[in-house]
Specification:
2 copies of one chain form a homodimer. Chain A is 35% helix and 17% strand. Chain A has 399 residues and is α/β, with parallel strands linked by helices. Chain A has a domain at 77-102 and 203-381: Rossmann fold (3-Layer(aba) Sandwich), CATH 3.40.50. In chain A, the strands form 3 sheets. A 6-stranded mixed β-sheet of chain A has the order 4-5-13-10-11-12, sandwiched between helices. In chain A, helix 3 packs across helix 7 (202-218), helix 7 (202-218) crosses helix 8 and helix 11 (321-332) crosses helix 12 (340-354). The longest helix of chain A is centred in the middle third of the chain and has 17 residues, at 202-218. The model of chain A has no long low-confidence stretch (mean pLDDT 96). At the A-B interface, strand 4, helix 4, helix 5, strand 8 and helix 6 of A face strand 4, helix 4, helix 5, strand 8 and helix 6 of B. Strand 8 (170-175) of chain A pairs parallel with strand 14 (387-390) of chain B.
């Protein structure tokens, strides 16, 4: 690995790059890899590159270790003229992260996390997740040939267990306080030599930077006015922000987008803290939203996101399940079927344009975080239309 | 549209490019767009192009019509050293078509089909499908704002209906002989002005060419020895073959791969005809396989595929459900979870290496056609491993 350090996002204490415990022993806030201040995009054809190779200057790695990669990222950016007209803004773009190896954005951070693990010599990895991240880690752990521990809650239904189990990880239903497992797993991992690549560990955050990098390329380096991201742990949003920051430090773009942290109102720790002008987030008691993928009651990077929002006059929004379901169907009308969490940005922008916060000249990017096939229970919330017809009546029926 | 014709794949009779009836009125065999004999790959960054723009020379279109596109294609090619070692061949590559807008290869042909429809002025489109193609057409029809008829069999379960209905097409359960609906829909479509973009219509076949084009780029124009494709209607395989043929005609590659037409033994019309040395395929009575996506009892391009196999000494293989399930799990062990049809190529290659047909020096590409999330009933066929543990025992458990 190239020479660099981890730095605390809050108190700026320095830690070695080889540290796998992702939080500061001084203030308990998350660490991150020191920002890159000099770099360019590698030349070449993305069809023959991986994201780590194309953006190599922005990672402490040289190339890809041992072929442990599924060619994640390089996802489409799709413009929607009809959504832009409907919402009264200049342009709307959908960054479709469902086109990843396990059909969510998580694969980017899993890639960088496992690259770090393998370079440090770890043979065992793990994660605490019941959804996108669990499937992603199980898939990459299988590809890498590493022992992979996936810790899920004891009551997870088969619909969610099976798409994780198919990759043959050590899949463990944990009985007890699942809410504490994020911290518990890190402690056990450090002791037992298991690298827990949880939601916001520094090297998972590194992977999410590539969403910003690709966006800049896809928009020919014209930074969007608003970047809207469904937010749970805060790890993905931290990565996207860091990506834009590093491209700006390196002179590849000349400004930052205004960030919109989009949460579900049934579990909106960051939004609530910003609205109440609190310095720190508080745990959400009894979280309840259809957007399960972003239902983290105590986001481990919540305070750091809150600091960023406050320092930059950025925005947080909370949207109801009703708004989410409406937005999910509207996105399908654009040909993109995302899981409920993926619809949160569209619902958020609808609020913000309605309030006049986002104006008619704005360009807006919505992050579509994961595939709708991952959470089929949402179908019950839609009024789906199906007709019946005899084959001999078809000609008449279709007139 | 650029000036070209349709030509019958069998008797070579010529038809106008504006024809939407996909078969010859002389011999009833499928038509295709005349082969391109002069062309190059457009320069530029695939992150800022669509497949139609990059390979524009190979289509009768100029660019993209009205933004009707979801940035399909440009899917990963992932090498598997461990599969190559296990099967005793030089290299195995997995072309991962699950990373498309509706998570199957069908989106490529839907794109080109709808581009043709819109350029001809059609406001209504349709398809006959109960799976990947139905979802793909529904998504693109929604994006295009076209009236989209999706004809499915009367007994289709909700698990398959819902992911089509979410895009709001005119979704019709058809009572009667579903087997005849391919031809019936084409006749009604011609009469009622509905462009039925069925499994092997010429402009759907055109879209599948881009799989071959990308493969050539991804392999730096070193053509693989074997190209293994799960085969049902024959449309996708026809497109892949045509893509390699056109690149060869244009001097971009110097030879063809040896094609392997991989079928499920419970529905193997092409394999059976080749084995029996028949001139034409026969309808499979009572088709029965877990690979529903390739369960077409009378492939409309079956005779044309058979002609190609015989003329070139290419190969067809049939694999059992047991072999398919085994291969599906093995692919998941490589981090790629495909639907059962996607596992048919791996099962086929296992047969062919076992028989010594494919030798130790061979390079082999397997087409992974669609996402495993599309057919979750297959989980029941796997022995999935899940453990339980109390949180206080986790440290001990993971030792």
């Amino acid at each position: 690995m190239k020479k660099t350090d981890l730095i605390c996002t809050h108190c700026e204490k320095i830690f070695p790059i080889s540290d796998i415990y992702p939080r500061c022993d001084n203030c308990n806030e998350p660490l991150e890899v020191k920002k890159v201040t000099k770099g360019t995009i590698k030349k070449g054809n993305p069809l023959n590159q991986t994201i780590l190779e194309r953006y190599e200057d922005f990672f402490p790695f040289k190339g890809i270790e041992k072929g442990i990669c599924l060619n994640e990222g390089f996802t489409p950016l799709v413009a929607s003229a009809s959504l832009a007209a409907e919402l009264g803004v200049r342009t709307i773009y959908l960054k479709n992260e469902t086109e990843n190896p396990t059909w969510s954005f998580k694969d980017r951070g899993t890639l960088t996390g496992i690259q770090h693990a393998v370079r440090l010599g770890y043979k065992k990895i793990g994660t605490v997740s019941s959804g996108n991240m669990a499937a992603s880690m199980a898939a990459y752990g299988a590809k890498a040939g590493l022992k992979t521990f996936i810790l899920v809650s004891a009551d997870l239904p088969p619909e969610k267990l099976n798409p994780i189990a198919i990759y043959d990880p050590a899949l463990i239903r944990v009985q007890g306080d699942y809410g504490n497992l994020y911290y518990e797993s890190l402690t056990i991992g450090k002791k037992e030599g298991i690298y827990f690549i949880n939601s916001d560990v520094p090297f998972r955050v590194e992977g999410s930077k590539t969403i910003a990098f690709e966006l800049c390329e896809q928009l020919n380096f014209a930074v969007p006015d608003y970047m809207v991201v469904p937010t749970s742990s805060g790890g993905n949003l931290r990565g996207i922000i860091k990506g834009f920051e590093e491209f700006k430090l390196c002179g590849l773009i000349d400004r930052m987008p205004r960030i919109v942290c989009a949460q579900a109102s049934g579990c909106a720790a960051i939004y609530t803290a910003q609205k109440k002008n609190h310095e720190r987030i508080s745990r959400v008691e009894n979280p309840d939203t259809i957007a399960h993928a972003i239902e983290n009651p105590l986001p481990p990077s919540g305070n750091e996101i809150l600091r960023k929002l406050r320092a930059n006059d950025w925005i947080s929004v909370a949207v109801t399940d009703k708004e989410i379901i409406h937005a999910q169907r509207r996105l399908a009308g654009e040909g993109i079927f995302g899981q409920p969490a993926s619809a949160v940005p569209l619902a958020a922008v609808r609020q913000l344009t309605g309030q006049g916060v986002i104006g008619s000249d704005a360009s807006v990017v919505l992050l579509i975080s994961g595939s709708g096939l991952k959470y089929t229970a949402a179908f019950e919330r839609h009024d789906l239309q199906i007709s019946d017809c005899r084959i001999e009546d078809l000609g008449e029926f279709m007139k």
